[in-house]
Amino acid sequence: xxxxxxxxxxxxxxxxxxxxxxxxxxxxxxxxxxxxxxxxxxxxxxxxxxxxxxxxxxxxxxxxxxxxxxxxxxxxxxxxxxxxxxxxxxxxxxxxxxxxxxxxxxxxxxxxxxxxxxxxxxxxxxxxxxxxxxxxxxxxxxxxxxxxxxxxxxxxxxxxxxxxxxxxxxxxxxxxxxxxxxxxxxxxxxxxxxxxxxxxxxxxxxxxxxxxxx
Length: 214
Ligand SMILES: Nc1ncnc2c1ncn2[C@@H]1O[C@H](COP(=O)(O)OP(=O)(O)OP(=O)(O)O)[C@@H](O)[C@H]1O
Ligand SMILES: [Mg+2]
What we know:
The chain is an alpha/beta fold.
């Protein structure tokens, strides 16, 4: 479902990713550990089609991202890829339910689905609240609910428990893992928390631009 072959990314003189190879199958959960600045978010942005300045080959759902037009890439993202960003990217002028329904622009809004997703992440009854009135951890859970909205075939999560306490972090990880297993989503979690990585099927470490098996 996700296949990277020899992917490299430079920022000016600095090489952040160097010949990264990675395969994530449908239904598989892979965690990537790595120090701050190791290139974890960069890796996710490439797979999510948000960074096209890489070398090598990146395939998602059998499609080589470099061959897609911007609109084809937008379509692939909307239909097949769910992303939980490190900095959430919630829209402050939309309430919680509307933020969840946003990826549904292509599939049509469905407020019952928004409610079910809010329940699933422990935000029952908060659909009318705006992100500015939610705590950091609540925003995090809302971002996760939004990423699950279209039951994506590929789920990319950047520090999914970064703002959560141990209990709600564990609940979120269980929810993300269940999605992968029930719906057969290929999941890539980027984290520096070992306890998050423990819930993955496979753990890799990004170090000096390369992915190492742990
Ligand atoms: N657009 C950019 N232009 C220049 N440098 C960048 C850009 N994006 C990222 N970098 C650099 O690439 C390196 C890797 O960044 P990245 O965000 O991928 O790290 P990370 O592993 O996600 O770190 P963290 O755990 O702190 O989130 C950093 O040193 C960062 O400064
Ligand atoms: Mg990051």
